[in-house]
Each structure stands twice: as C-alpha cells, then as structure tokens.
Write a structure and sequence with these properties.
This protein has about 450 residues and is α/β, with parallel strands linked by helices. Helix content is about 45%, strand content about 10%. Strands 3-2-1-4-5-6-7-8-9 form a 9-stranded mixed beta sheet. It has a two-stranded antiparallel ribbon with strand order 10-11. The longest helix has 27 residues. It starts with 12 loop residues before the first helix and ends in an 11-residue tail after the last helix. Bound molecules: S-adenosylmethionine and iron/sulfur cluster (SF4).
C-alpha cells in the first residue's frame, strides 16, 4: 500500500512531525481518501467536505457508489497523500497544517478510522434545503429536490452496515426526509455507528428529541454569535431566543449521555470581534468550540483582509486569549482551539504583509490565462473568464501561495479544476474570483 512515488511533499518533515505529535496521528497524514466518502448535494462525491472545489472522485448517479470507491481518481488522491502532498483536493488542510492551525485541520478527524477494505465513514450532504438563509451560506436553500432518492438508499444499505461514523449536514438535516430513513436503518442494523448531526438548532420536536437521546447520536449546533442582533443578522430567518431554548434542550440531552456538545462557528466580517465572547459562552455551557473556515463569499471571509484589520483583530484576541480560563478539560480544549484560530489570523496577517509585494496585473492575468494550454481545452468558457477579468481592478494583491503558484506554472490543475467540474456560468465566476482572490467589495470588520 505504501508505494514509493515521485510526488513532492507540500509539508516539511519538521512541520509534519509537529502536526502528527499534536494530532496523535500517524502516517498517512490524512486517512479520508482511504476510509471515507462525502456526498455533496449535486451528486459529486469526494473523500471529505473540503475536496469539493478542488477534486472529486465521481458523480452520483452517473457513477455507482461502488465505481466511485474503485475509481482511479481515488487511487490518485491516495498516492498524493502517501507522498505527504496535500495539493490534490487537500489544499485547505495543507494551509492549516503549514500555518500551525492544527485544531482546524479536518484530516485530524479521520485519524480514528483504521484503513481497511471497507468504507468506515460517510458524510451526507444530500440536500441544500433549509429554513434559514444565513449570510455566508451559498447554498440553494429553497430547493427541495434531491437526486438522492429511494434507489440511492437501497444502493447505500450494504455500506451503512460497516460504517463506524456518519455525519449529517445540509441544508438543515432535520428537514431532509431521506436522513430519517438512514437514521432508522442505522439504529437497527448498525447500533455501533456514531451518528453526528450538524444542525442550525431551530428545528425541534418529539421525534428529534427521541432520536438525539439515542446513545450513539451526537449533535452539534451552529451559533455564530451570542448577541441576539448579530445572530439574527447573520442567521437570517432564525429567532435567537428560540434557538437558545432548543440549545439548552439538546445540551442537556448530550450532558445526560456524558457527552459534550459542539458549537460550530463561522468567523466572518460581522462576528470576527465577537469570537472570544462565543468561546466564553461555550465554556459556560460546557460545550466544545469548532471554527469553520469561511473562504467564500470573499467579501465576508476573514481571508485577504488588510494589515490594519488583522492588527485590530489580533490586539483584541491576544487580550482575550490571556484572560480565558483553562480549569476544566473543555475549557482547556476551547482555549487551545481559539489559540489555533488566532494562529490562523496571524498567518493571514503575515500573508497580507507579503501580498503588498505580490502584485498581479489584470493584463498579466489575461496573458497567462489565454496562453495557457490547459485553458485552451475549454474554449466555451473563454467568454465568461474574459468577462470576469474585465470587471476586476487593474492590479490584484494576492497571497504568496497563489502568487508563487501562478509564477511557477504549477497552478493549472488547482485553478482549472473549476472549468472541469463546474456546471453553471455563475459557479465558474464565483470559483474564478475565489481562486484569484478577487474581491469585489469588502464588508468591514466591526
Ligand atoms: C451548511 S451547514 C448545514 C448544517 C446546518 N444547517 C447548520 O447551519 O449547522 C454546515 C456548517 O457549515 C457552516 N457554513 C455555512 N456557510 C459556510 C461557508 N460559507 N463556509 C464555511 N462554513 C460554512 C455552517 O455554519 C455550519 O456550521
Ligand atoms: S442554517 Fe445551515 S444550511 Fe441553512 S442557511 Fe444557515 S448555514 Fe446554510
């Protein structure tokens, strides 16, 4: 299995060792490509949630689950991981490991599963349907249709029996009908499988309470602010007071099972200054904190902010980090997670300083793209890309990672995956802007 290949590592030996010491893991650096599948709403299937924009293994129902597991693309991704090269779909983990943001590294989550012949974990994002319209969430939330129907459920059953863990996302999981079938099936046929549900905390009823009370069912709630007005501004359609009431019900059920619930946070421009307050709330509620990495929409993302904005944030974070208590195991965990998040902001701040020197002109970008052989394979996309370029300012300040990538000619696979995998023009424009770090307007960090 651990064959030699000539793929160059993207992580130095020292950093890798440090990360493995932190994560208690061993090589390969991530097991997701060996043990796991992630189903996206549009039928794309990856090894993990972070693969979507970069590298997927196949598309359901065109490819059966069995075909996807046996696909060449899966083997190829495994080869890269074995060479400690995290450029094949794994760019976000690569960046988090290299910046020291270890608790934000998704790969850590896959350590638990031993590599074997069966798939051990499946993450389900089978529908975008949701009752809220959160600012940072770019999903098609009103869409009730899903390509995952009863025949998908039948095809899935043999895999469900061997799983060790499942994750249910969306959309809002408690509003997605097929999830109830999968939960019922797992609770009868695979009682040992962990069922993790990521919810917005606004939907609750007796059936949900009964489900969540099962020993192997765990829930995590998304709470992006503990101030009613910020929360309701970000989580459009939600009522803060009702969500907190539900939060307390779920948290008490988890505590009765001696399990600490997770609070998931999307740090964005609107709530960046409130992050320490959310950590304190998690401490008081005996919950663990988790930070999503929001790279898009770019105007809300904390990536690519100005040096001044980062400084303002970091000054606040350092003070608050020092004051955070660390008496219990959960407080210690939350302090460490917040500390790692601060490291990420430090690393972004460093990139912002460097990017003052990384100027890419609009003309240069046009020239690079039009002369690129890879790009020429997609002539039908030319107009869309040219239109995007015309709409941007004359020069872009980009991160060193992107700047070096472009100049090394190394960027083709990374950037042009968007031409291969995207379906609509809008999606291509969004990905193009994301990859070239093009920001139309900025929401200010308050
Ligand atoms: C898409 S939601 C689905 C589950 C549920 N509706 C919820 O909000 O928890 C899964 C997680 O992704 C987070 N999320 C939403 N938009 C995001 C974005 N643009 N980037 C990263 N994470 C995001 C949510 O806050 C949530 O924690
Ligand atoms: S609740 Fe979740 S799925 Fe719904 S809009 Fe918000 S982040 Fe998106």
């Amino acid at each position: 299995m651990f064959w030699k290949n000539k793929i160059k590592p993207t992580i130095t030996r020292e950093i890798l060792q440090d990360y493995l010491t932190y994560s208690g893991g061993k090589l390969p650096v991530c097991r997701a490509p060996f043990t796991s599948l992630y189903f996206f709403p549009d039928g794309q299937v990856g090894s993990c949630c972070l693969n979507k924009s970069f590298y997927t293994l196949g598309v359901y129902p065109e490819n059966s689950i069995n075909k996807i597991i046996k696909s060449k693309k899966r083997t190829e991704q495994q080869k890269y991981i074995l060479a400690n090269n995290l450029s094949n779909g794994c760019q976000i983990c690569n960046e988090n490991i290299n910046s020291g943001n270890y608790s934000g590294v998704m790969a850590t989550d896959y350590n638990k599963h031993e590599i074997g012949k069966n798939i051990k974990r499946i993450d389900f994002e089978l529908s975008d349907f949701c009752n809220l319209d959160c600012l940072m969430c770019e999903r098609d939330k009103k869409n009730k249709n899903s390509i995952y129907n009863d025949s998908f459920f039948e095809e899935l059953k043999p895999y469900l029996k061997n799983l060790e863990a499942t994750n249910f996302l969306g959309g809002e999981p408690f509003l997605i009908d097929i999830y109830y079938k999968i939960w019922d099936y797992l609770l009868i046929h695979n009682k040992n499988c962990n069922i993790n549900i990521q919810s917005n905390g606004t939907v609750i009823n007796d059936r949900i309470i009964e489900l969540v009370s099962n020993e192997k069912v765990f829930i995590s709630l998304s709470i992006d602010s503990v101030n009613k007005s910020s929360y309701e501004k970000i989580r459009k359609g939600a009522d803060f007071d009702k969500m907190i009431k539900n939060f307390n019900v779920f948290n008490n059920i988890m505590k009765k099972k001696s399990h600490s619930m997770y609070v998931s946070v999307c740090p964005i421009a609107y709530n960046a200054a409130e992050i320490p307050e959310i950590v304190k709330f998690a401490n008081e509620s005996q919950c663990r904190i988790f930070f999503n990495r929001v790279v898009s929409p770019t105007e809300l993302s904390l990536d690519n902010r100005s040096e001044g904005e980062y400084k303002q944030l970091l000054d606040n974070y350092y003070d608050q980090l020092n004051e955070l208590s660390s008496n219990t195991e959960i407080e210690h965990y939350n302090k460490q997670t917040f500390g790692d998040f601060v490291k990420l902001i430090e690393s972004l701040s460093k990139s912002a300083k460097e990017s003052n020197n990384n100027i890419l002109s609009k003309e240069k970008l046009k020239e690079i793209l039009l002369n690129n052989t890879f790009y020429k394979r997609f002539p039908d996309k030319e107009m869309i890309i040219l239109k995007c370029i015309e709409s941007i300012s004359d020069s872009l300040m980009i991160s060193t990672l992107t700047y070096d990538d472009i100049n090394s000619g190394n960027f083709e696979e990374r950037y042009f995956a968007l031409l291969k995998s995207s379906k609509t023009d809008d999606e291509i424009v969004k990905l193009f802007e994301k990859y070239f770090e093009i920001r139309k307007s900025k929401e200010k960090i308050s």
